Amino acid sequence: MRGARLLGDLKSDAPDLFGVPTGTGLDRMFYTVVFENGRYVKKPLGGIPYLSVINLTGIPDTGKSVLAEQFAIKQASSGYRVLFVTVESPAEFLYYPIKQKSEAMGADFSKVEKNIVVLDTTEDDELRENLSALLATMRDVISSKKTTVTVIDSVTGLYEQREVMARGIVRRIYNFLKKERQTALLVSQKRSSQASESAEAAGGLAVAHIVDGTVVMDKKLIETVWDVKNYGLPIGTVLRTIRIDGCRMAPHNTDSWVFEITDSGLIEIKSTLADFIKKTGGKEKN
Questions:
Q1: Which own/partner contact pairs does 224-229 have at CB distance under 8 Å and 24+ positions apart?
Q2: 33 has which bridge partners?
Q3: Is 92 a member of any domain?
Q4: CATH label of the domain that carries residue 102
Q5: Span 275-286, mean pLDDT?
Q6: I need a surface site. Which of 12, 78, 127, 179 has the fewest CB within 10 A?
Q7: Is the separation of the CB atoms in 14 and 64 below 8 Å?
Q8: pTM of structure
C-alpha cells in the first residue's frame, strides 16, 4: 500500500536523537531518558533535537532574533554551515550585530563569517512572495554550500497580508526542511497583545500546529504596585521569560524561565520563573 511501511523497516532511516547547541540555556531544557543501573535517568540533550524544525515565537522585541543569531553563531563557529534567510532586515545590517555577538560569545569570527550564508529576501519580491522560487533558491544554497542548519527570520514575513495561506506556506517550508535534512529555527511574530505567553497567540496555529516544537518568548513591563510586590522589580523594568511550549521529538522542561539580554546582546537564561518569584517576590525595590 502506498506510504505504508512496517515500523521496524523505518529504523535505518530514523535520525539519531541528540542536541544541536544554541549557545543558550535552552540547551539544558531538552533532555532524553536512558535506562541505567536499573532505573530511568534524565540526561540533558545539549541543544534542540537534531533535524527538528522549531518555531521561535513571541511579541516584538522579546529577543527572538537575538536567540536566532546566537544559534547561528554557535553552529557556524563549531564548523557547521548555516543558511540564514532574512525576511525582515536587509542582509548588510546583520554583519556587525553578528560580529559583536561572536566576540561576546568568544567565538572565532573568521569561522563564523565563512560559515553563515545569508539569503536576503527583503528587496526581492519574487523570493518573498513566490514560495516556489524561495524554496528552489534555498535548495540550491543547501546543495552548493552544504548547509546543515537553517534560520528563517521571520517566517511571518512570507505570508504578510495573506494569512489565510499561512498554514499551506508553513507546511511546505516544514516539509522542505525535513526533506533537506536541516535543523531549523523559524522565527514567527505574534500579532496580538492578548495571551502573549501562549503558542496559539504567538505566531498562530498555522505555525505551532505544524512544526516539531515551539519556544515562546515573552516580556512583562512592571507597571503596577502589584507587579512590584509580585516580582520584586522596580516599576518601569522589563521581565523576560522563555518557555518550551511543546516538542514532539524530545522530552523537555515545561517551566517558564527568566532570561536577560546582556549588555553585549546575548541571551542569558537565569532561573525558573517560580524560583525567581520565590527569591524576589514580595521584596519591593526602589
A1: 228/284, 228/285, 229/281, 229/282, 229/284
A2: 42
A3: yes
A4: 3.40.50.300
A5: 72
A6: 12
A7: no
A8: 0.91
